[in-house]
Write a structure and sequence with these properties.
- The protein is mostly helical.
- It has one domain.
- 74% of the residues lie in helices and 0% in strands.
- The protein has helices at 8-21, 28-38, 45-64, 72-103.
- Helix 1 runs antiparallel to helix 2 (28-38), helix 1 (8-21) runs parallel beside helix 3 (45-64) and helix 2 packs parallel to helix 4.
- The N and C termini lie far apart (47 Å).
- The model has no long low-confidence stretch (mean pLDDT 89).
Length: 104
Amino acid sequence: MKTVPIDDNFEMMLECAERYAIGRHSYLPPFAIAYITTFLPDISYRTLSVFRDDMKSNFAMFARMNWYLSYQKEWKDFHKAVCAELEKRKENEEIRKRGAKREV
């Protein structure tokens, strides 16, 4: 079995998968969502922010153009998971900063 590091290249491929899958009317979106979601705790803040911003802009575009978004519930759940991971990191950073200030 080959292992792949979670680096900038891998994260770029996850972004490509997400962007390709959004709006597709096929079997692909749930598989892409499930696969990417497993990596949320391990990927960079930047990539999480890209996912969050992609979801916000795509939701707005689909609503504005009155298009149907296939797997809407799954995409909204993915968006919530991304936002939750970002919030968790923000809280952890604030706790870390408070702890560092107390040590001084």
